[in-house]
Specification:
Structural class: alpha+beta
Strand content: over 45%
Shape: elongated
Largest sheet: 7 strands, antiparallel
Number of strands: 13
Radius of gyration: 22 Å
Distance between the termini: 57 Å
Number of helices: 1
Length: 192
């Protein structure tokens, strides 16, 4: 899922973003970019039962689907988190003991997920994810910079996405052209 480039760095608490899933998909990896820091990373994936309230209110009405704390290295972390369409997904992540966040352009930020439009909104936790279980998250309607945390996803749908349909249609057109050419060659060799 494309994210904006780093715009600034924030240190002190953990940041991220939340969005509503436009289709069924699986999160296959998660990682905090190294633009702001290459310290150990801490990441969490949550599914929210209610939209996060605006800060200074917070909610505990969510499920932690994945949590990795103080993971050394700069590579993304492999995960297997299935998400169904309509689910509100929260992504949190930072690097180092001081929750170093790589901030992106102010939210809401419009991007795509498997060819579907999705809007990312700022999600925050007023704690250090390296040492604290995801606790009491809040949103902010913006415009506020949000914590950049990369995720990679794979489709769970048996129904192709728009880009997959394009490939299927192009393949069918090429197959049809091939059949027509073969028929013409067969007719011309039959007549000769």
């Amino acid at each position: 899922m494309p994210l904006p480039p780093q715009s600034s760095t924030y240190t002190g608490q953990t940041r991220g973003y939340w969005f509503t899933a436009p289709s069924d998909f699986e999160i296959t990896s998660i990682g905090v970019p190294t633009d702001a820091s290459t310290d150990n990373q801490s990441v969490a994936i949550i599914t929210l039962n209610v939209p996060p309230p605006d800060f200074s209110l917070s909610t505990l009405d969510y499920t932690v689907e994945f949590l990795a704390q103080d993971v050394p290295g700069v590579a993304p972390i492999s995960v297997n988190v299935p998400i169904t369409a309509g689910t509100m997904v929260g992504i949190l992540g930072s690097r180092g003991a001081n929750s170093i966040n790589s901030y992106g352009t102010p939210s809401p930020y419009n991007t795509t997920l498997l060819g579907n439009p999705v809007s990312l909104s700022r999600l925050l936790m007023q704690n250090d994810l390296q040492t604290v279980f995801p606790f009491a998250v809040s949103g902010e309607p913006g415009p506020f910079d949000f914590g950049r945390v990369n995720i990679t996803v794979a489709s769970l749908n048996s129904v192709p996405t728009l880009s997959e349909w394009s490939l299927i249609i192009c393949g069918l057109i090429m197959l049809s052209i091939g059949v027509v050419v073969l028929k013409q060659r067969y007719r011309s060799t039959k007549l000769a």
